[in-house]
Amino acid sequence: MLAEIITIGDEILIGQIVDTNSAWMATELNKIGVRVKQISSISDDKEHILKALAEAANRANIIFITGGLGPTKDDITKKTLAEYFGVELVENKEALANVERIFAKYNRPLLEVNKQQALVPANCEVVLNENGTAPGMWFNQNGVIYMSMPGVPFEMMYMMEGQVLPKIKATLKLPVIIHKTLLTVGEGESFLAERISDIENDLPSHIKLAYLPKLGQVRLRLSAFGENETTLQKEVDVFAARFIERIGSPFVIDRDIPLEKAILDLMESNGLTLSVAESCTGGYLSHLFTQHPGSSHVFLGGAVSYSYELKESILGVKNETLWQHGAVSEETVREMVEGALLNFKSDLAVAITGVAGPDGGTEDKPVGTVWIAVAGKGKSFIKKYTFGTKRRQNIERSAIMALSMLNTLLTEIKK
């Protein structure tokens, strides 16, 4: 079952707002066995809308339209839909009652322009909007379903979850789609692909493998399509187990969650705590951890020790180490991670020191030079990285590589 999403609004095309609706809708549709074939953003232009609808009808079974349903003159979606289907706009009593209810609730005067929100194309089935005045409109024309909804995200989401998705499941016979995501870190996409190529070749035609790389990470997504959910799930699980065994230490978790969340969950399940000693990342690694609820079960905190003085006073790095080897060195990062373990009383610790850039580099320590150490439970790893010249990317890459090394450390601890 194929779907197409059309978002309408000049504000999207000029970058004034970001289209978050399409990504959310695609995720929810996929869960019920509807695959999105195309997503388009188009302008508030009648001819553009008419053309987009006609083209989409040749590609998809269901067309979702968001935006352009407001009460002002620039919102033309409803009138254009009426023209597309060759019908008149008529007043819908339920939609009008809903508009009156909302204005009465907030004790606001009901203007004539607001009453016009209840005008809908004569051939549509109204889907009431419990969180706004613009009704949703369901059309079934020549075997194609069209669903027009408000562009306001929370209005669209409530409408989809409460009414549209249940209606689609009740109306259509949908296939089963199962996804399983394997999160890996520290190994490039091409190296992973070469390592698992023979297993990938064994996949049947109804199971696909997608590579989703992202700054030091690669997510491998297995997608299976069929009729029997139990059988499909067993097949996916068998192939996932083969991939995991072959991937080895770069594998983190078989869930589609952020890397740092996976590390937190793994540490919590093993009753371990963590502290950090950050220099060039300036607290970015700590931010990644603490953005997740419940991170305090694992993450104790740490230090952002930019200066020599703080590296000495908070972490116990020796003065002679700093002046002899410099802040960006194997010797310094070793003492930083040891100081974090000692002073912050955590089971494991991470230390990062480097030259983030764009200046500050030297001939032997150019911009992008970063030392990372992880330690705890009698084991430690220290590694030097040489990234690029862009400060933000260096900070992000440092954090990701620190998480990769933490994952390796956890793997070793479990042996």
List the helices and strands and how they pair.
Elements: E1 2-8, H1 10-13, H2 21-31, E2 35-42, H3 46-57, E3 62-66, H4 77-85, E4 89-91, H5 93-105, H6 112-115, E5 119-121, E6 125-127, E7 136-141, E8 144-149, H7 153-171, E9 176-185, H8 189-195, H9 197-201, E10 207-214, E11 217-226, H10 229-247, E12 251-253, H11 259-269, E13 274-278, H12 284-290, E14 299-304, H13 308-313, H14 319-325, H15 330-344, E15 348-354, E16 369-376, E17 379-386, H16 391-414
Parallel strand pairs: 1-2, 1-3, 3-8, 13-14, 13-15
Antiparallel strand pairs: 4-5, 6-7, 7-8, 9-11, 9-12, 10-11, 15-16, 16-17
Helix pairs in contact: 2-7, 3-4, 11-16
Describe this structure as you would to a colleague.
The structure is a single chain. This protein has 415 residues and is α/β, with parallel strands linked by helices. The protein is 42% helix and 26% strand. The protein is built from 16 helices and 17 strands. The protein has a six-stranded mixed beta sheet, with helices on both faces. α2 packs parallel to α7 and α3 packs across α4.
Mean of the pLDDT scores?
A: 95
Low-pLDDT stretches are none
Q: What is the count of β-strands? A: 17
Largest sheet: 6 strands, mixed
Helical amount: 40-55%
Q: What is the global morphology? A: elongated
Q: In terms of structural class, how would the helical and strand content be classed?
A: alpha/beta
Q: Oligomeric form of this entry?
A: single chain
Termini separation comes to: 46 Å
Using the CA coordinates, give the radius of gyration: 27 Å
Strand proportion, as a percent range, falls in 25-35%
Number of H- or I-type helical stretches = 16
Give me the side-by-side strand order of the main sheet: 2-1-3-8-7-6
